[in-house]
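Why does residue order matter? Because the sequence determines the fold. Keep that principle in mind as you read this record.
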Amino acid sequence: MKITFAIAAGLAALSISITGCATSAPSIPDAKRASWIDGACSAETPGVTLAVDFRGDVSTHCAISFQGNSWDLFGAAGFEVRGTDKYPTAFACQINQQPADAACDDSASSAYWGYYIPTDGTWGYATTGASDHQTVCGTWEGWVYMDSEKTVSKLPAPTEFDCN
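Structure:
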């Protein structure tokens, strides 16, 4: 009887241990599960819209039902992003492999990717990094390749909506 109780107690402890491990196992991030379409999100197709302006060539994608940080939004919206060597999830060096000749080793350069978030329908420079910013359904985010401080953004006017 003592052996059976000891075995049962041991199995219970093992079960609790295994169950605890199962909850900490890595899961597929939302960014990998989300799907995307060309164009902006809408009330009919809710999600987060990401617009990328590389020297006037603008691509706009909707990450359908995406929730997560803005760095993960790139993958959810069908864009590839490469950070700098020193700050791999803070500073974008290349988006969709542009600029092709970018040195992502943190060397001094006057050109960079600017990160924008709209407020009341007007684009403004983001005050947080993309990996620190949580997206909100119905909103837009934008990235503009800045060859110089005189670069003019071609990002489309953001048309935000309520997902509720």
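Residues 1-33 have pLDDT under 50 and may be disordered.
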